[in-house]
Amino acid sequence: MANVQFQFGFQPYGSVAGATPSFGLRRRTIAYNYTTALFRGDPVYNEGTGGNIVIAPSVSGQIAGIFWGCEYPSNGGLRALPVKSQYWPGVSLGASLSTATVTAWIIDDPDVLFLVASLGASRTLAQSDVMNNVEFNAGAGGNTATGISSYVIDDANITTSSALPFKIMDLYSTTALPGVNGADNTTVYNWAVVKMNSTDRAAGTTGI
Fold first, then answer.
1. 101 shares its domain with 116
2. In this structure, are residues 183 and 173 in contact, taking their beta carbons and an 8 Å threshold?
3. pTM, entire model
């Protein structure tokens, strides 16, 4: 069955070691006035000051991990019940909440595997791409109804460079049932299993 374009970010899929993954989350923070939306499955980056995370500013550089949700005070003030969300709406909480903590949760374990779609702009992913490194692309834009990311890997930018943020470990077709979306390697928009390659916890390795 020909693949249909479907963008869903980087979704946990397993572990490099083959053990049952825990997908342990690390607590980070977002600036109360950060106005760029973050969706579940987005690659994120260390802002550089204060320990906050931001959307990854480069499609080919080091990342901090994958955004997986957040918690922040409602507009009722610091004593209001917290809002728990799969995505950060990218709207400033306002000066009255400038001392509030916006908690973010990210997956930063370099051994976690992720399922991700390809951009499909130039070609299909091929078996020869496995164990090479790849850039990402923001896709069409995250879904505010579900909170799910639209990030994909860029099939036009797969190289051996150790600086690239993700490594292709397998094609989805290897484990998928025949005929499901993303498993047809003869048409664009096929899916891959990747791991983080160049992160602030682990230096990237070259592809083959």
1. no
2. yes
3. 0.92
- Angle (CA) 13-29-203 rounded to 5° is 55
Q: For the chain, give the mean pLDDT.
A: 90
What was the pLDDT predicted at 182? 97
Q: Are residues 88 and 133 in the same domain?
A: no
Instruction: Provide the terminal-to-terminal Cα distance of the chain, rounded to the nearest Å.
Output: 30
| pLDDT score recorded for residue 21 | 62
The two tokens of residue 84 are: 């728990």
Same structural domain, 117 and 190: yes
Q: Which domain holds residue 47?
A: 26-107
What's the pLDDT score for residue 81?
A: 74
Strands 191-196 and 112-117: what pairing?
Answer: antiparallel
> Considering only CA atoms, which of 98, 86, 66, 84 is closest in space to residue 165?
66
* Burial (Cβ within 10 Å: 0-12, 13-18, ≥19) of residue 16: middle
Cα angle value 123/107/80 (rounded, 5°): 120
The listed range with the strongest mean pLDDT (35-49, 119-133, 194-208) is 119-133
CB 95 within 8 A of CB 179: no
Query: Residue 73 corresponds to which tokens in the numbers above?
Result: 């005070």
Helix runs in 27-94, H state only: none
